[in-house]
User: What shape does this take?
Amino acid sequence: MLNTNQNLNALHDMDYVQLARLYWLETKFEWLKTIRNPAFSLPALSFPVIFYLFFGVLFNHGNVQASSYLLCTYGVFGVMGPALFSFGAGLAIERGQGWLDIKEASPMPASAQLISRLVVAMLFSLIIVISLSVVAVTMAGVQLQLWQWLTLMAIWVLGGLPFCLLGLALGLVLKAQSAPAVVNLIYLPLAFLSGLWMPISMLPGFMQNFAQFLPPYHLAQLALKVVDLDAGQDSWQHILALLIYAVIFFVLSRLAFNKKAR
Amino acid sequence: MQIQASADIQSSQHIVAQVSNLNKSFAGKVALNNLNLSIEANQVVAVLGANGAGKTTLINILLGRLQADDGEISVLGQPAGSLIAKRQTGAMLQVANLPETLKIKEHIQLFQSYYPKPMDYQKVMDYAGLQDLQQRYSRKLSGGEKQRLLFALSICGNPKLLFLDEPSVGMDVEARQGLWQAIRDLKNQGTAIVLTTHYLQEAESLADQIVLLKNGEIIKRGNNDDFRASVSHKLIRFASKLASTHFANLPAVAMVSQSGKYISLQSTNANQTLQALLTLAPGIEDLTVQGAGLEEAFLHLNQNKQAVNLQTAVGA
Assistant: This one.
């Protein structure tokens, strides 16, 4: 009896090659699905660069320090977009269509869905921060050491993780029709209040204090540390704050997921 | 105890899935009441019933997407929703839309990768009739084409158990015939198929076993003939120059309808009605008498739950 069951199980096992192919295809098609959707990909890819061009380069013509500062903060702004929209709005819409029901009924591992979206959000982030860096170097005269560029890229791309988790929680809670609007209502104020659009020191004191409670502020401060323009707190404080937010968003996602399953 | 049960099920090769004494309520409202059902290989089971009768709840429990309150559920000798069960199951559920920016070919390649032994790509295309649409983006599909794609996705994994929830919605006649042929082929190759439909002709033409659900209970089960037999009505049809009102008062006539020069009588006693009819109007032409179809049976059963309960009690 036990033997039969084991044979039976083996019959329906998938080997590593098959599983690798599954994750590869899930990611590939998630990427194609996203890039082919101009309503998402155009704003996600172009807005951070256009904003940076106006506020970081043209308005601060010749002020390389300001351009370096805003490069760091607009990088954070750019990374938040795909994280919140691909996970948040994208997931909410597919959930609303009933499409996720089909996926759940299939033997697709739930992790394939999460990992593919995570990889796609990170690829988008990478494209955005590389475009920003090209603009910064060629048009604003920003000059950094290689290690600074590499560290910045790592901070930006890995720093997108808490926002992916926030997006995941939103994607599991929001209704499909209202999801894009709600995500924007969270994304844009969060970016402004965290000092991503204009330096935090230009905001009034109470807003500067309030920014301490927002995750993008801490990611921006980490990035600013690389170019020595941060507000002077220790790195570990920012990393700890981001980790705490990641845990909170993860727990919220779990709660939302469990609620849905019932 | 449960292990024993699943061993029994595996030893009797033809039972693919089974539920016994299944109960499910939502917030105190009973959705399924003490339900028993066996799903066998080489069989199409049609689950019929009005909206809210419990069809979707039953399918979701068999897919492991809902937890039953109590009762035993076995799908391919496994708990419902387990990975091994899922790898042998296909499901075509009702979906408002698919991700629009993928092509049909890509959707199918992706779903094939979910299964250890996927069905051959060309075979999937043939079954679903999608050969000419492989490069089409799913946003450009009509309702019927979308259904064909969902059908393709449901059979990608060579399922032993296939759930089809309203599969032919939005399909034209040709596509529907193609779908029915595919369902018959899959059935003949051993697949157990659970079909829900509002379209009774679909159940009539495909199902080996029909289960009629009402308020979460099975009020009737059997094959086509059993269902027809449960309605004692006969349908008497003829051409006459007289208006249909003339026939309403004939003995044993339950209903009169007219289309063109043809008049249809539903009779609870064909002999009585025919005798009186031929006396009243000897000049009628094209006279036919036939048993009621599934549609009449379905309406009849769904309306007279009391009567049906008596019948099933006697039958059991």
About this structure: The interface with chain A takes residues 3, 7, 10, 63, 65, 67, 77, 83-84, 86-89, 91, 93-102, 106, 109-111, 113-116, 150, 153, 157, 163 of chain B (CB under 8 Å). The CA atoms of residues 88 and 294 of chain B lie 32 Å apart. Confidence is low (pLDDT under 50) at residues 1-11, 305-316 of chain B.
